Amino acid sequence: MTSGDVVMDAGTAQKYDFTVGQRVRVLSAGPVRTFTISGIAEFGSVGNLAGATLAAFTLPTAQAVVQEPGQLDFIDVVTAPGASKPAVQRNIARVLPAGVQVVTGQTVVNENTTSVNQALSFFFTALLVFAFISLFVGGFTIFNTFSIIVGQRTRELALLRIVGASRRQVFRSVLAEAAITGLVSSVIGLGLGVLAALGLEALLRGFGITLPAGPLVFEPRTVVVGLAVGVGVTVVAAIGPARNAVRIPPIAALGDRPPGGDVSLRRRFAWGAAGALAGAVLLVIGLAKPAIALVGVGAVGIFVGVARLSPAIARPASSVIGRPLARLLREPGKLGRENSMRSPRRTAQTASALMVGLALVAAMSVFGASVSRSATSSVDQAISADLIVSATGTGQLSQSVPAKVSAVPGVTVTTTVYRSQFELAGSLATLTAVATPQPADTVILRMAAGSAAALAQGGLLIDSTTARSKHLSVGDTVPVKFAQTGSSAVRIGGIYQANALIGSYLVSTGFFLQHFSRQSPGALLLRTNGSGAADSGVTRALAAYRTLRFRPGRSSSKPRPPASTRSSGWSTPCLPWRCSSR
């Protein structure tokens, strides 16, 4: 392998029909360079790493491509069999220069795991919300199903009472049926979940995202929790129908007298109205604060209250709704109206399935629209820039990009954003720095305490959410740790309201580059004079940097810039390099 060669991952080569000997252009921090594909390799036993494009060079070539001559990001060390890993770690640390850290492989795994968990925290939260909604809707459906089953088996249960069965025995028999049903359903659900996981893995492969080979993880706790939740929800939902089954006098049931009376319906109306009203109050308070917990409790209260209220209003509602149908359809409409009015509980239980379905569809629609609106709103509340220039994938900008963009006519302000990871109080976090004479030109920073001027003195600004969760305030000193410069301490100089661009921690550019000396910009925020010529000029200036993409900043009525400067051809990002067919 020579300085003009590159080794490509098998997944990318297969996807874009690259072969050994073909010439490709590679773009990273420096200028575009042309290489010859000298080999195609696998990542472990798979074609690539989760769909990322991989490129390998000789060491001097790789350093030149990323414009870091004589520098290494990390060195992997394999110890000899039987060697003491702590002793090897200490010996390596003695011969390394200051600012270089020696950690175990498990430490790196833990840091990467923490980073992935932080990135997927919103996804996990959304899954938990959907899980709770599914359990609630499932429990409600189970309740209605067992109510109908108990109503259909009134004669059978009454006969058991006549031949000597006690109320407790009838109650236990209904709950036993619910437990068996829940157990069988939970086992089937676990099996379908495993099949869904296999299908999802195949779907990811279809999109070109190949995960490293490994066994399907199916832990015992998954079975235990799944069975416990499935059986528990089913039994709890069946308690109400089981209690109704033992309340019916045997003689009344054999005489086909409908269960319950006007007193029960009046009581149901009172409890249902009270529950729905309490839920509405909690919902309004939760939306006003805002407090997501109160919103959830309020929605559940309204749902349960309406469910309790529906049998009480089923008879008058059926009378009003069925009257026009009775006149239009004559006898069939009249019979249907009378049948609906005869048993309001049965009518309410039948209609509840439609209520649950519509409520679920409405909830998902509102949730999707809210997420979309929240994403747009978060950008508007975070930045005042007109354009955002960033790299595709997890790549970074070339050091030459800010100067090229600043020279474009019509660009009035250029803000460089740096971002990297550090440790704060023993936890891995992301640190952001914003380089501009006046941050307010492109970034909206609303201070809740302290002052943004603390950045100039090397202070740390944190967002209000982090301050509350970690019990931090202005003036506190927190321990920090950087990969290059080691441990230190920094004073909190201010607290700002949540900002989607900045994240949780903000420092000055000078402080940032002291601890991350070879860091490339992560993004650019641009303010323009509002003319379309400025957008076109930025596009032309960065035409050679095909790894970059442009996005509109704050919402405005002016034309959106191009989605990216990519031309036709190979447009999948290499991480951390960019490749394209010649």
Features:
single chain; 582 residues; alpha+beta; 4 domains; 6-stranded mixed barrel; 5-stranded mixed beta sheet; 17 helices; 16% strand; elongated
Please, could you describe this protein's structure?
The chain is α+β, with helices and mostly antiparallel strands and 582 residues long. The chain has four domains: 1-71, no CATH class; 136-248, no CATH class; 260-368; 382-568, no CATH class. 52% of the residues lie in helices and 16% in strands. It contains 17 helices and 15 strands. Strands 6-7-12-9-11-10 form a six-stranded mixed β-barrel. The chain has a five-stranded mixed beta sheet with strand order 4-1-3-2-15. Helix 5 packs antiparallel against helix 13 (344-382). The model is unreliable at 556-582 (pLDDT under 50).
Walk me through the topology:
Blueprint: E1 5-9, H1 10-16, E2 23-27, E3 33-41, E4 55-56, H2 59-65, H3 85-95, H4 105-119, H5 121-152, H6 154-162, H7 167-206, H8 220-247, H9 250-254, H10 262-288, H11 292-329, H12 331-342, H13 344-382, E5 387-391, H14 401-406, E6 411-424, E7 427-435, E8 447-450, E9 460-463, H15 464-470, E10 477-482, E11 486-496, E12 505-507, H16 509-515, E13 523-528, H17 532-541, E14 548-552, E15 578-581
Parallel strand pairs: 1-3, 7-12, 9-11
Antiparallel strand pairs: 1-4, 2-3, 2-15, 5-13, 5-14, 6-7, 6-10, 6-13, 8-11, 9-12, 10-11
